[in-house]
């Protein structure tokens, strides 16, 4: 799988995510924590990838 396909799959997982799901809550918490530890430029994309990963594995 190429990087472009992986990013496209991540985008589709994020668009399918429901607001009150467990993966959405995990994504928001990870974005906040990573943005506090690192800069928001690193925390927000990393949190989105974590949310997509949790969504695809559940």
Automatic annotation (TrEMBL):
Q: Indicate the transmembrane segments per the record.
A: 24-50
Q: Which UniProt keywords apply?
A: Membrane, Transmembrane, Transmembrane helix
Source taxon at top rank: Bacteria
Q: Does the keyword Transmembrane helix apply?
A: yes
Q: Which NCBIfam families match?
A: VraH_fam
- Report the protein name in the record: VraH family protein
Q: What is the lineage of its organism?
A: Bacteria, Bacillati, Bacillota, Bacilli, Bacillales
């Amino acid at each position: 799988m190429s990087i472009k396909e992986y990013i496209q799959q991540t985008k589709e997982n994020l668009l399918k995510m429901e607001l009150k799901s467990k993966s959405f809550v995990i994504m928001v918490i990870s974005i906040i924590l990573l943005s506090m530890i690192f800069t928001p430029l690193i925390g927000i994309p990393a949190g989105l990838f974590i949310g997509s990963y949790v969504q695809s594995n559940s």
